[in-house]
Amino acid sequence: MTHHAYIGDIQDEGLSFLKESQPIQLFQALQQDMLLQAYGIYVLQLVDAALEDNQANPKVYQLLLQVLEALNQGLTAQVIVAYLEIHLLPIFGIHIQWASCATCQTNDRPLRFSLKRQAVLCDRHAFLDVHCLPVSSRAVHVARRLSQVDLKQIQNINLSDQTLKDLRTLMDAIYQEYVGIRLKSKSYLDQISQLEWPSA
User: Fold this and answer.
1) Is 139 helix (H, G, I), strand (E, B) or coil?
2) What b/e sequence results for 111-145 when a residue is b if at least 16 CB atoms lie within 10 Å of its CB, and e otherwise?
3) What's the number of domains the chain is made of?
4) Which residue, 33, 96, 108, 160, has fewest beta-carbon neighbours within 10 Å?
5) CA atoms of 167 and 115, how far apart (whole Å)
């Protein structure tokens, strides 16, 4: 998994030619670690699925490079991937109300996530959706914070295994409900991750 610069002639009609390829970043950790490689492949396919063919998106391209670099540096992979997934949702046309409770706008109480309302609800208003996702308020809080910060502000976050599992459950539910894609790389990542998190 590498980042290259290519030099060539691009023609509107006829054949285009690549003349030269220059490596910029090798992402060695992603090449050497099977789990990190699975994360890297998943984020590449997810970005590819989010973008229209033949349409440049420099902002998403830069985000992808930052995500790959963060994974390569050893930052918590589950958090970094969740960050990407959250910030790609608007590209898929999905706009989640993360900032505060959809009913009372509080943001300083334990929060739940409502798929029905596409928003977070505080503990006082969670009764409005009896099918709020069964994940911890800590995981919802982490997702909320990830939606608000720049990736460069994220350092290693000390989260329990259960919070990381809940964060994964939250993001999987959001993508299944609203985006509706199932990438082969995600299935492979799930299988590899099970080796990291054996069933209790």
Assistant:
1) helix
2) bbbbbebbbbbbeebbeebeebbebbbbbbbbbbb
3) 1
4) 108
5) 14
Which residue type occupies 147? S
CATH number, domain containing residue 31: 1.20.1440.120
* Enclosing domain of residue 43: 2-196
Per-residue model confidence as pLDDT tens digits over 148-169: 999 999 887 889 999 999 999 9
**Can you tell me the distance from the alpha carbon of 47 to that of 195, in angstroms, rounded to the nearest whole number?**
25
Task: Note the helical H segments in the chain.
Answer: 28-32, 34-50, 58-72, 77-88, 137-148, 161-174, 184-196
Burial of 6 (0-12, 13-18, 19+ CB in 10 A): exposed
Cα→Cα distances 15→11, 19, 142, Å: 6, 13, 48
CA distances from 162 to 63, 154, 167 (A): 27, 20, 9
Name the packing angle between helices 77-88 and 58-72 (round to 10°). 170
Give per-residue burial for 16-35: e unless 16+ CB within 10 Å, then b: eeeeeeeeeeebeebeebee
DSSP, residue by residue, 61-96:
HHHHHHHHHHHHTT--HHHHHHHHHHHHGGGGT---
Residue type, 133: L
Evaluate the CA torsion angle 172, 176, 179, 181 in order and state its sign. Answer: positive
Q: Residues 172-193: pLDDT tens digits?
A: 999 999 999 989 999 999 998 8
- CA-atom Rg of the chain in angstroms: 19
